[in-house]
Amino acid sequence: MITVEEILRKQDLRGTACRRFIINGLLESDRALSENELKGDFPELFDRVTFYRTLITLEEHGIIHKIVLNDNSVKYALNSHHQNENNLHSHFHCEECDEVLCLEGKTRFEAELPDNFVSHSVFVVIEGFCADCASHIK
Ligand SMILES: [Zn+2]
Ligand SMILES: [Zn+2]
């Protein structure tokens, strides 16, 4: 299991408290987390601007990626959670409990780009019910 320090060192990033806090939170979670879910029991630990800027820094360094959902809410996940270095992967969003997962595998979104367009990332969100919710909803 990769550690917070290893992730930061790989990107040559200083380990500020906020960076450590966010990476650690995502490492301990098997799902994507919103800003509020990340803050969890410590909503006042970092001021909003610091927290927001840190998320952007981590994203720019390829440590985390964000998933924008249908209602425009945003969740974050660690890039190291999946092998797919090229950023091509799908997500699952449970409409009932709001859980968001990065999916492994080759569920690729096929699209023909117009000439000379350059693609950097593809994020597909599959909406539905997770196993838990599906078993409760009939
Ligand atoms: Zn669910
Ligand atoms: Zn993902």
Structural summary, described in words:
Strand 1 (64-68) and strand 2 form a beta hairpin. It contains five helices and five strands, in the order ααααβββββα. Helix content is 30%, strand content 20%. The model has no long low-confidence stretch (mean pLDDT 89). It has a single domain, classed as Arc Repressor Mutant, subunit A, CATH 1.10.10. The protein is of the alpha+beta class and 138 residues long. It is globular. Helix 1 crosses helix 2 (17-27). The structure holds zinc ion (2 copies). The site of one zinc ion (ZN) has 6 residues, from strand 1 and strand 3.
Task: Provide a concise account of the structure shown.
The chain has 138 residues and is α+β, with helices and mostly antiparallel strands.
Show the helix and strand layout.
Blueprint: H1 4-10, H2 17-27, H3 35-39, H4 48-60, E1 64-68, E2 74-78, E3 88-94, E4 100-102, E5 122-128, H5 131-136
Parallel strand pairs: 3-5
Antiparallel strand pairs: 1-2, 3-4
Helix pairs in contact: 1-2
This protein binds zinc ion (2 copies).
